[in-house]
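It is worth pausing here to work through a concrete case rather than discussing structure prediction in the abstract. The textbook approach is simple: state the sequence, then state the predicted structure, then interpret. We follow exactly that order.
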Amino acid sequence: MRPTKKIRPPLCALWFAGVLALASVAHAHDPGLSTATLRIEPDQVAAVLVLSPADAGTILDLDKIRAAGKTGQTLEFVATAVPAGSPGPMQLQVNGQPVTATNLRCAFDTANNLTIQFSFPRRAAGKMVVRSTWLLLLPPGHRQYFTIQNAARETLAEHLFNAREDTASFELSAATPVASSAPRTETFADFLVMGVKHIWTGYDHLLFLFALLVVTRNFKAAIKIITCFTVAHSITLAVATLNLVQISSRIVEPLIAASIVYAGLENIFSRGEPKGRCWLTFAFGLIHGFGFATVLRELGVGENGGSLAVPLISFNLGVELGQIAVAALVLPLIWKWRTWPGFAHRWVPAASTALTLLGGFWFVQRVWF
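Step two, the predicted structure:
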């Protein structure tokens, strides 16, 4: 009896095409990040908000701010960059009474990020409630690393705000403000979730990992690849966040794209599983770690005396959990596909060619655009 021919739809190609389509319409990294610091001083509550140009441009007239800076015009003129009817960057209440922000100042840093400084008059002791009101005006999914410090720049509390959770409350004593909750615990969970989401939406990281795993033959080979990638990017994530080594994102991002191109080409021109893949994975994993660190740097983690250990550890743990979840989903499919005749000789080169083209597109885009 003639055996029934198995129906083998090109699931690999369809799945990969879906990933490419998703990647082509999305950014490799989520740009919706900002940082806000509130410092409780003896005579005032000073605030500093830092926004990327893309995010600031959704709220403010940046041309007016630049013009005011060049001509030295008054702070009141700078304030006109805020659309009529829009709330200020923050709202503060002490014992239920609103406090008006004063001394608004704006400036662009060397990376073209907009820094907005302002202050609130310090009032009597009591309950203080602060709300980051511009989060409602920023793009959906925007996150803000919010830190409250005392006059000695010691961190009292940290939050990861979004449009739905944009408020913190504190008890102002006669001398020192005391947090009314345990925000550090919340921050650990927040950064853990951020790490998971970052690897799941970091399509360049995922496609590099897919390029490495698609040629693996068994569990042992896959574990070696994943371990090397994890160790490498954990090292550079730590050293970059600790400011021990800094590499510009203008260098890191093209190199991440180049890692996809290299892995794809190696898959095409090698027969079977390339030799020395662990060393390749480790080398490029170091580069990817600098890319992960960009998220924490954009959030201002560790700056102005803020806590560093909790965000670093929890974010990295989230990245690893997200990576493991992706590998647990993809590897069984890859090993199933390997049982199909022609998979290694047909579908692997096809997928690797698509990877190479996409990586090349990202490389050109990140170098020249």
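Step three, interpretation. The CA atoms of residues 42 and 122 lie 7 Å apart. Residues 11-29+202-368 form one domain.
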